[in-house]
Design goal:
Shape: globular
CATH class: Alpha Beta
CATH superfamily: Gcn5-related N-acetyltransferase (GNAT)
Strand order of the largest sheet: 1-2-3-4-5-7-6
Order of helices and strands: EHHEEEHEHEHHEH
Distance between the termini: 38 Å
CATH architecture: 3-Layer(aba) Sandwich
CATH topology: Aminopeptidase
Helix content: 25-40%
Number of domains: 1
Largest sheet: 7 strands, mixed
Structural class: alpha+beta
Strand content: 15-25%
Amino acid sequence: MIRQCVQTDFDSICSIINDAAMKYKGIIPAACWHEPYMSAEQLTKDIAAGVEFYCYEDNGKPAGVMGLQHFPDVTLIRHAYVLSAAQGKGIGGKLLTSLLAKTDKPVLIGTWRDTPWSIAFYEKHGFKALSKEELLPLLGKYWDVSDMHRENSVVLADKKWYDNMRS
């Protein structure tokens, strides 16, 4: 079952993100890695900035989370994570499909450049990576990340974004 998260899910959101993000350790630049990967303070800040979290429940317990952040012209998919023990079971795809149905705007997703599994997941769901020239202004406009983070990121866009850019 997929449902919108509530305040009592806060600790589960942090736990799922931090468990799944361990896959990044040693992959992303050391300057961008910290433990916990998602602090309670950062999660609180992201929620205050408008990130709406949804969770996939497996046997009544959250096993995956994904956020939506709406802007006037686009919607971002934020913090897409599935517990390491539950990965490979289609949970991420179900969450993504559900969240995409909640917006009619173009959708952008940011992830780490050196995580081919993450990029392949989004490409499998119809997203295309933007060129470096296209992504840098978007990272500055929609994401509050460090210069190092920007340099090591990729942004993927859905068909609506590409269609809007061409018209």
